[in-house]
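Worked example 4.2. Below are the chains of a multi-component assembly; read each line carefully before continuing.
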Amino acid sequence: MRILVVEDEPDLRRQICTALGEAGYSVDQAPDGEEGEFLGATEPYDAIVLDLGLPKVDGISVLNNWRQAGHSMPVLILTARDSWTEKVGGFDAGADDYLTKPFHMEELLARVRALIRRSAGLATSLLECGPVQLDTRSGRVTLDGAAVVLTAHELKVLSYFMHHQGRVVSQTELIEHVYDQDFDRDSNTIEVFIARLRKKLSPDLIKTHRGRGYCMSPPDATG
Amino acid sequence: MLGRSVSVRLIMLSVAWITAALVIGGLVLSHHFRVHVETSFDLGLERHVEELVSYVEVVDGHLVLKDRPTDPSYQRPLSGWYWEVIAGDQVVDRSRSLWDQILDLKSQRDHHPLSGQTSNFFMDGPRGEKLRAVSKTVVLPGFDQDVVITFTGPAKVLDQAVEEFSETLVGSLLLLGLGLVAAVVVQVILGLRPLKLVRQKLAAIHAGESDRMSGTFPSEVEPLVHDLNKLLDHNAQVIERARTHAGNLAHALKTPLAVLSNEADGKHSECAGTVGEQVQIMNELVSRHLARARAAGGMGVPGLKADVGEIVTELKRTLVRIHQGKNDGAGIIISLVNVQGQDIGGDRQDIQEMLGNLMDNACKWARTQVRVSAQRIGRDIILDIEDDGPGIPEDQRSAVLQRGKRLDEATPGSGLGLNIVLELAQLYQGNLTLGSSDLGGLKVRLQLRAA
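Applying the procedure described above to all two chains together yields the following structure tokens:
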């Protein structure tokens, strides 16, 4: 899961990025509205944390521009302005959630988690695929009830598959959502992660569709 | 009163001026009339004098009257109409009306004019009555003494004529004065009517019925109205600027607060705990004073109006999205009852703030639905915000309205919501009460003045 943080205050940006990174997300950051708008429009993010009081272009305009260009990724507005006028304005501009400063980091993480889950059309934070369960709140993975230990990158790949079950996901899409912008992308590593997941969880959980990508679905659903 | 009312001042000044003008005018007129009446009276007497002069002859060194004036007034005893001819110090002849009296001419300063000349004067008659007299001194050939011929008439006749004239004059002048004063009063009332209109418009602004002065005014009042409008605009601008500044300060503080609180979060030192607590306190202070500054700013601005229907529709749209994850992903159903066409007198943002907090609270606690209903009772609009949540037991309701008090620490929110709404409502001379809803949960009743 890849997330963009657009916030002009460097300390707060660092704190949010660190917390999101620790929670298992790949995080990109932008210090102003211009760069944020560009990144949000060009990179496929699973969620965006957007400050409203931004230099160069303000947050509401950035959000408006994204929505007008047809980008529908979930956006969490993070702002000091907590009046209902601002909230109504934010939601009307196309925000999916609204968090006012100061906030608790757990609250932000919970909101981001809920946003990603909702945009995938899922109602609970406990994702299931056959014998595999992923608790998006804690990042805990179990196989038939027994805990499985995964590395950060394995967890990211698995989480993306769990959110998009039954859909063929291309390698490029996986790379884009698993790595942040600055990461040296190598498609071979994706194959390595998938091989490791198959080994740690279940061999036939993730199927390869030659030339198209991978698809995760419960074993009984595909027969 | 005299110093404060322009109307009274104008009328008093006019009355004083009119009175002075009429009194002086009356005195001058009456004086001229008297002079005129005396002149014609004197002319009459002079004619008699001339007549008598023509009757006087000198026969053998003695004065002889060939004839006597025929006017019967001079025959009637002590009528006031007298004549007398004096040669030297001797009374040569006199009118029959004088009877056995003579005219006391010696005490009169002008009784003996120079030869050939006439003098007019007042004198006292034999009965002490006032007389108007004309004396003429003639020199007759063959007679070595000056002959003084004097005719008198009663001054009462003069006085009566002047008195009658004065009575008529005073009556007319009084009538004229009253007419003038009435005209002044009407003029002042009509002339000051635009000022009254200005006052009415100001009252309307104060009552919140309008925010500027509109309409056409006379060119003398127009600049005043223009300036008043400018003042109103300036006032609104100042308030807007103050609000913006308060908002900017509050919001600028919140980002550092967020950094501090995040830095302290998750660290288990005493310092981190203190920082966390203080950040929480600062945040509540900022929110509280921001809300108050905003509301207090809005108080003074007249002519504000907030459309309840529009506000709650907007809030519903937003709140449905905020709480879409509730109720196992089914969200909260918000129903609006009779909210269209209800206008509250107040700043839109303040009303939105109150309703937003109340509706958000209701959504937080509701299981499946929230209902917002409005009704107008007299001059007030009563807004009920109800939910089907757990409600609040009666004995705890007053505690909820206290500053920052929360009954359940687990549900997110600063706990300031209801308290801020209560404060805002009180600033607007409204009220906030808690009760039970037939939906099963809490009913919050917000009472505000209609626009």
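Take a moment to check your reading of the output against the notes. The first helix of chain B runs from residue 6 to 55. Confidence is low (pLDDT under 50) at residues 409-414 of chain B.
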